[in-house]
Every structure is written in C-alpha cells, then in structure tokens.
Design a protein that fits this description.
By secondary structure, this protein is of the alpha/beta class. The chain contains 12 helices and 19 strands. The longest helix has 22 residues.
C-alpha cells in the first residue's frame, strides 16, 4: 500500500466485504439485508460503498435524509432506498427520485398521502415506523387504528414495511427492555396485518440486534455501524474489520528549548528539550479539540506520539522527541495499529461520532486488492 503524501482517509472495500459477509452469515438466507449508508456512508464514500454493497448482495439501502437518497440516484444507484427521517417539504422530490419514506407520525403520514395523491401515485411504497421505547421518532401502538384507516382509505400508497428501532440491543443489562420492545412490535404488526389484509416486511434489528437477538430478525435486518467495522462490543469488534484508516504526514519539525510553547494560548510548554511535528489536519477535518493536550495521540513509524497543545482548525502538533522520523513521514491517526474506538474513547466519545465527523475536504482513497 503506498504511503500517504497528504491527509487521506483510506477506505478498504475488502474489509467492507468481510463485514457484510459476517453479518449476512448471522441471518437466515430468506432474511433481507438493509445496509444503512447515511452520513456519507458513515463518513467514508457513500457512492463507492453503495456500489460495493450492491455487488455483495444488499437488498435495501437506508439514508437519513432525502438529499442523501437523491445523491445516490444521481450516481446511478437503483436499489430501493428507505429515507429514515424525511421532511414534508421534500416529499415531491422524494417521489420524483423513487425514494421510500419512513412515515413516523400522523402528520407526516397524512402529508405524504396528500402529496402522493396529488402526483397520481398508485401503491407508492412507504415504511411505517413505530416507537416501542426509543422515544425518538415513531407512531404509538395506540395509533394503529388511525394508520390502518388512512392506508385503507387511499390507493396512492401501500405499506412496504413496518419497523421499529431497538434502544439498547448491545447492552445485556437492558435485555428485558429489549425483549419488551420486540414483543410490542410483534403485537403492532399482527394487529395491522388483520386490519390491512396483507403483510408488509418487518424489521427491528440494528447491528447489535442482528448479533444478540436472532429470533427478532423477522423479514429484514438493518445494519449500519457493523458494515464499517464496529460491533459495539469488544468481542464483536475483533470479528469485524474497520474499513477506514485516517492518515496524514509531517509538515514540519520543530526543536524546542525549555520554556518554549506550542500553539494557541501557549497550551503546551516544554519543560525540557523537545522535538515536535506539525500535521496538516485539525478540527475542521474532524479531529476535534477534545483530543488535544495529551489526551490522544497518533502512530508514527510504529510509535505512539501524543498530541500536544490545542488542536487548531487545520493543524495538530505532536511530541516526537523520542521518535526517529523526518518531514514527509506518514502518520496514522486511527485505523491499522490504532483502533478508532480506542482513539475516540480518549476524546470521551464513540466511534460513530469520530468516523462520521471526518470532513469531506479530506481526500478519500479506495483500497481493494
């Protein structure tokens, strides 16, 4: 693999294939796989990720917003795409691009039916989201009669699926709560089956649900973070392969004498002869200020180098006093020898926030042997 010559996020499509196939092995062959590729493919490259997942056999994609789905359609992605959090102002654009909305309240259900009827749609596929305990988005169990009346009262839309979202599927201490969510969801589905006279797809499991609750796979599972190499648990992390490695280089090396300071507010002051390196990456690239002042570090020529001083918008500085290196050498922020989960923890956050926060100005480079 060529050494980095600038700040770059390397995206390993072989690792993506490994993760998809591992998660696919956890579900029965007749259970569909919905790949969640929102937020630029969890901070990677959404179009290339989508193309690879189509090749691997994904059945559905999911994004957060209509604009994300439109981007995929413009790139030629033809697989069904669920929009998880659509807004009514985008419904016409959503239909024009053959995207499928999650309808999560009486308001959005009525608004979408209104728009679908205006555009002369026939049985346009929609997905009804039910709130079983996450209390974020979703119709309530007591609203099933309203849902069936609205769906039965129009020919413009037809339910493609019913779904819900588990709140704590990775946490065995919350197993009773999770099982209650699954039970509630099953009851909602059975009631609506009778009222509608047909059976839409059912899905409730996220990545941790796929792994921990095999009896709740229903007709389809949704996997997001797992595709990108994170399993929400140390044992599962070891079975998955992170697809992203964030690299940069040394721009300049400085030799400090005792008392010299580094960066804004003189946040670091040398208490001895110190050698530092400046890297072309900063909080505008997603390496935020909480990683500075020794809380996190990077890997340089196989050795750990702590970040010193305050992280700047476009630069960070590291202590390389005991490391043999030169300007232009490659530096690994996360990935490879430093797991993103470990790096994120040093900033008191999680891998999700770290990887999705990598700025779009960082160059993406695909790796596939």
């Amino acid at each position: 693999m060529p050494k980095a010559r600038e700040t770059v996020l390397e995206i390993d499509l072989n690792a993506l294939a490994h993760n998809f196939n591992y998660l696919r092995s956890k579900v029965d062959p007749d259970v569909k796989m919905m790949a969640v590729i929102k937020a630029f493919g969890y901070g990677s490259d959404v179009v290339e990720i989508a193309k690879k997942l189509m090749e691997l056999g994904a059945d559905y994609f999911a994004v957060a917003y209509t604009s994300e789905g439109v981007t995929l359609r413009k790139a030629g992605i033809e697989l069904p795409i669920l929009v998880l959090h659509p807004q009514s102002v985008n419904f016409e654009e959503l239909i024009e691009n053959c995207l499928e909305p999650s309808l999560y309240s009486e308001f959005v259900l009525k608004e979408f039916i209104k728009v679908a009827e205006k555009l002369d749609q026939k049985e346009y596929p929609v997905h009804l989201k039910f709130n079983t305990g996450l209390n974020r988005l979703g119709l309530r169990e007591k609203e099933t009669d309203m849902v069936s009346e609205l769906l039965n009262g129009t020919k413009a839309v037809k339910a493609a699926s019913f779904f819900s979202h588990l709140a704590a599927s990775e946490d065995w201490r919350e197993r009773e709560f999770t099982l209650e969510q699954i039970h509630t969801f099953r009851g909602i589905a059975l009631k609506l089956y009778d009222a509608l006279g047909y059976r839409p797809l059912l899905h409730i499991c996220n990545t941790s649900g796929v792994i921990n609750y095999p009896k709740a796979h229903f007709d389809m599972v949704r996997t997001g973070i797992g595709l990108y190499g994170f399993g929400n648990e140390k044992g599962e992390d070891q079975k998955l392969k992170p697809i992203g490695t964030l690299k940069t280089i040394i721009s300049q090396i400085h030799h400090l004498k005792k008392g010299d300071s580094v960066g804004y507010n003189r946040a670091f002051k040398a208490n001895k002869l110190t050698k530092t390196a400046t890297l072309p990456i900063g909080h505008a690239d997603g390496i935020n200020r909480q990683y500075g002042n020794g809380r996190a570090g990077v890997i340089l020529n196989g050795q750990y180098a702590p970040i010193i001083g305050n992280v700047c918008m476009d630069m960070v500085m590291i202590d390389i006093t005991d490391i043999d290196c030169k300007e232009g050498d490659e530096v690994v922020i996360f990935g490879g020898p430093q797991h993103a989960t470990k790096f994120a923890a040093k900033g008191n956050t999680i891998s999700y926030e770290l990887i999705t926060g990598i700025s779009q100005r960082v160059k993406r480079r695909l790796v596939e042997n």
